[in-house]
Structures
1.
Amino acid sequence: MAAAPTVLKGVTIAKDVAEAGEVAQGLKKAEGAVVGTEKAAQEVKKVEDAGAGAAKATEDSANLKPYGGPGGGHHVPAKSVFTGNSAYDINKALAVPNAELTRLGLDHGLISVSQQRLYRAFVQTRHALTWNDVQKIETEALISGGMKSVTAAEATVKQAINALKANGITAPTRIPWGK
């Protein structure tokens, strides 16, 4: 029985080693959980930042209204893109009202000059004008005219294009300022 205390010590040591292994595994799991929590927190932050960016874009986007007649603001897209389309009504088409131009610090003349320059450059490509092309040109024109962000300009143009589509305009009719 002299070996019994040694065996008991061996069993105790084996138990301690096993418990230490379990503790080590537990620590690894805890570390993994902490890293996972940190990654999740970073993802939440990204989503929050994106939401804040979208809210800012909405705030910086133009509140479009039907043009309504002379002095009704700036047409987005340019009205001459739809010359000849019987479904297009110049007074019902959405525009950036003059008060919105002022609120957003936009220069109506500069936007119009940019539209003209960009559509004239597009003519040189000899491609048919698509909604995608209109989106790009009109977005760039708004930015050239002082719109603070690409996201806000894109949102403004998309709103106008979607309204045109909803009113039966299936495609641009012509390239303005294209001789």
2.
Amino acid sequence: MNRLRLLALTATVLVATAAVPAQAQDVPYEGFLCCNLRTDGSWISDINYADSGKRILPAGTPAKVTGYGRQRVHVEIDGRKQAIGNDYSRNLELAAFAKRYVVTADPRVKLAGYPPQVREAIAAAKLMRGMTREQVLMSVGYPVTSENPDLDAKTWRFWLSSFSEFQVTFDERGRVAEIIADPATRNLVVME
């Protein structure tokens, strides 16, 4: 009888543990912003629009994931509460989405090893020919998965605003071959 109770209790614990979402097990954790992200002081969207009044939080900024809400990851950055909104990448589970944007390895370590002109472009949130995929991500953030489901794709689509799309095309080595945009957008995203 004790053995049956033990088995029943073990099964109950296993079911209860399985019911806890994986994301609830991943908080809090501390890390660093993966990439340059734009904030209005309380909200960071995964589309990373460059609306007026937004400032850039540089790649490598210390961040602490404190919890999850409806399509958002609650973070603390510089002692201030903010949320990273999963507005356009909802096919990612929230814990995976959080780990995309708040990474445990400081990207500034890799950034320090890049050539000076690449470091300058990333600091300005701009792109240049010859950048690697990783450098593009650090500079302008992740392309949203609703439009870019495959990070190995030849072309990534980004937006500075609802009407300012730019596309980054990679060569066979995974380096930026071309940046396609209207002239005004190009001036804002390309470092020549």
3.
Amino acid sequence: MGSSRRARAGGLEPVGVQLYTVRTLLEKDFDGTLAELAGIGYREVEFAGYYGRSPGAVRGALDRTGLAAPSAHVPIDSVRDELPSVLDAARVIGHQYLVVPWLPESQRTLDGYRAAADLLNRAGQRVKRSGMQLTYHNHAFEFAAVDGRVPYDILLERCDPRFVAFEMDLYWITKGGRDPLAYFARWPGRFPLVHVKDSAGAPEHRMVDVGDGRIPWPAIFARRQQAGIRHSFVEHDNPADPLTSVRRSYAYLRSLEV
């Protein structure tokens, strides 16, 4: 994109954070940690569990801090067996997306991925009727070929885009040896959510704060319309200092010209 068409506008917006990053802090001080995130400048959060709080209590904490929670990670077993209660909670909290975060190792066969896609399609129809979107989040294992096929491609092919979207974890796809830009081009509009976490590079792919690694963030976000990206969540699985990590990642993303 030429400089004449590049809009500074204070950097990437909106910038969210996956709360797994600050899980140790939430366990000690739920409301205070949300307030800290809002103070940094985050306006959106993505849940991975509610830390023993009721949906109403979670919504109250969000309202007090001015945060929105457009999405939450929900285990595939809960999607299969407890979907009505999952949807009830999501409505109270205000989620727009329910994200299946991974498949158990026992299901990581070609038939297992096909069965997972079929389950996601069935559940996705019910989620859609409730005004939300079911979504699948990748790790690296979906990109390791099984009998000549890339499992992530099977999910994209078999999942009905009307009912199932994808949250691309940009660290894990990179560690899996695949190019996110190629997936944006091949499957445009399928990735409304992304996890923004950085890699120091092969072979170890040590996780680092966003902007400290080698993932080409300007190139990725230049293609956000093609990808369909609506929400971007900073994440670091095991930061030494969670608040320092999310603060540094936020500052980097807000400095980008996108």
